[in-house]
Structure formats: structure tokens, C-alpha cells
Amino acid sequence: MVQTDFGGPEAVSPREVPEPVCGPRDVVVEVEYCGLNRLDLLQLKGPGLIPGFRLPHVPGMDFAGTVVETGTAVGSVVPGDRVIADPTQGCGSCPRCAVGDRAYCVRPRILGGNAPGALAEYVRASAESIVRVPDCLPLAAAVTLPTAYATAWHAVHTLGAIAAGETFVVHAGASAVSLAAIGLAKRAGASVVAFAGGDAKRAAADEAGADLVLRNEDPDAVKTVSVFTDGAGADLVLDHVGTDTWRTSLDCLGVRGRLLLMGNTSGDQVSFSLQEVFHRGLKLLGTGGYTSADFVAATSACFTDGLHLPTAARFPLEDLVEAWDVLAARDTIGKVVIEP
After folding, report:
1. Taking CA atoms, which of 13, 115, 231, 301 is between 20 and 30 Å from 188?
2. Which of 262, 255, 261 is nearest to 277 (CA)?
3. Strands 311-316, 335-339: parallel, antiparallel or unpaired by DSSP?
4. If you average pLDDT over residues 23-45, what whole number do you get?
5. Is the bond into 138 cis (omega within 30 degrees of 0)?
6. Which residue blocks in 253-291 are alpha helix, DSSP H?
């Protein structure tokens, strides 16, 4: 599927394009599943958000498939291997890439972001970004892992330093990254409180392992969290909603609590008391991009413990526009998946 303009469904259509050329340190993968992300929708409407984005563009960040070709310098995988990849490729040579911080590469290359993505029969990726999928995990489940779990791992573990016995609060509990964060927090031995909207979304957060599920905008939410923690408050809050949940996030935190700021879907501007923050010893932490080490650690944990997201819906490639409509409605639980 090739995006040739900005706008609505008319801006993307199926086209025949040349197959990817495999470089010395690359692999070419036959795509079996491609998981949709909100970035696809945002860049369809325009303007392109990732530096280096240009039209025509093939979207699709998360994929699972089978290696069909490897470069001459690649020894980590062979044709026939079942794989997923970190869509954040980087340039491979700048100082940021050298330390595995590809999200802040000076010349970023992101599959489906500013480089040809996986809404196609074949996709080219750097061998360094490839992770083999164990035989016990279906590729249909593996495709739900890359972006959601690496992002959640970076927030919960690398930045949030979650520990067994702590209490973790997460908003938008049925979103992909929140469901991933719930599973990782439970795996770490934390207690989890999740906020979610309708009955189905609260049920999904509960199914993911949340110990307490509260409805969005519950007027007694802060009191309930206080009671749940025996008055101590939460140790860690993950907020990727923004303005609407800001006050609740701060009020749920206990002394020396950490607030992980990941998004602003409800608005970008907030206000707070500096005195409140420094007297209570709070930490306000912007999550930023995950690292290559986060990606490897997250996928390894998922493989070990069988973690993956539910599949909300599955579509053939030619029905991409319908799939995007489903994603845009924000009623889905889990990943919307395309089968090229």
C-alpha cells in the first residue's frame, strides 16, 4: 500500500513496487503480518511527523515474517528464520546508534515512518534490528510485540525502575502500550491499578493482570488508590493521556513517587505546584524513545513468559482503509493486524 498524498483514504492505494534490495548488513523478510500503529494514521493526514518522511511512502512499522534473503555480512539469521524487527533502525554509524540509542539517531531511519514499511509483501531491515521468534510463538502473536512492548519496557523498567511490591498505576488501560505495561509490571511483582473506559476495556485490563480496575474520571479514584495502598499512594504512574489525567496522576502518587510522562492525546498544557513536587520528592520523567537494549529485553521477556497483545481485528492488505477506520475509532482492544 503506497501513500502518494496527504488526506483520507484516497491518498493510499495498492501498487506494484520493486522488491527491496538487500544490502550487506540487511535482511529481506516476507511479511506475514503487519500491526498498525497510530503513526500510520497521523502521517496519512499529514504532515509527515518523522524527519526524512517523503512521498510516495509505504507505511507499516510492526511486522512478523520469514527471512528470504540475507546480506553478505549477516550471520545472525538465515533464510527460513521466523522474525520480528525493531522498526527504529537508525543509521548504524552515528554516536547514538553506537550505544544502541537509535531513537535519537542524527539520521533516523524508521520502517514505516520515513523508510519503506511492512504494508507490503516484502520489507528490508537491518540485521542488527532483527530478533528470531521461537517456534512456540505463532507469528500472529509475535506481530503484537515490537513497538508496544519495547515502549512499555523502557517506561516501566529502564526509566521507572519498577520493583516487586510497588504499586503501579496506568491510564488508558486497554490501549496497546498500557496492556503491555500491565503485563510487564505484574511480571516484575508489582501491584497494578488501571483506569479504562467502557466495560469491555475494563475487562481487558483485568484480563491483562490488573489487580484493581477503575473507570475513567472516577471521582473517588485518588481515595480508592490510597485505600488500595494502605495510605501510601502509588510508587509509579504511567500517563500517556495528558491534560485530562494530569491531576489524578499527581494525586495518586505517594512520597517519592515517579510519574512517567508518555503522551498528550487529551492536551499538552498542564500546571502544578513546584512546592508540591519538591516537598513530596516526586520525579516527573519524560519517557522518550526506547533503546535497542529495551527492544531485546522486552521481546525476550515476552518470549519467556508468553506475553502478547490480543488481536482486535485482522484484514487483508487491500482492506487497509477499512482497518484504519477501525483503528481510528479507538474502540479496539489490542492490535489491528494486516495480512499482506
Report:
1. 231
2. 255
3. parallel
4. 95
5. no
6. 274-280
Using CA atoms, how far residue 199 sits from 215, 241, 243, 331, in Å, is: 9, 19, 23, 11
Digit-coded pLDDT (tens) for 70-88: 999 999 999 999 999 999 9
- For the record, the C-alpha cell of 282 comes out as 516526586
**Residue 313 phi, psi (nearest 5):** -165, 155
pTM equals 0.96
Residue 247, all three cell numbers: 491531576
pLDDT tier for residue 29 given thresholds of 50, 70 and 90 = very high
Where are any strands of DSSP class E within 109-261?
A: 122-126, 130-132, 167-170, 191-196, 212-215, 234-239, 253-261
DSSP 288: -
Would you give the distance in Å from CA 171 to the centre of its chain?
15
Contact indicator for 324, 41 with CB cutoff of 8 Å:
yes
What CA–CA distance (Å, rounded) separates 37 from 241? 16
pLDDT of residue 217: 87
Yes or no: say if 33 and 64 are a contact pair by the CB < 8 Å rule: yes
Place of cell 494486516: 338
Residue 20, preceding bond cis, omega within 30 degrees?
no
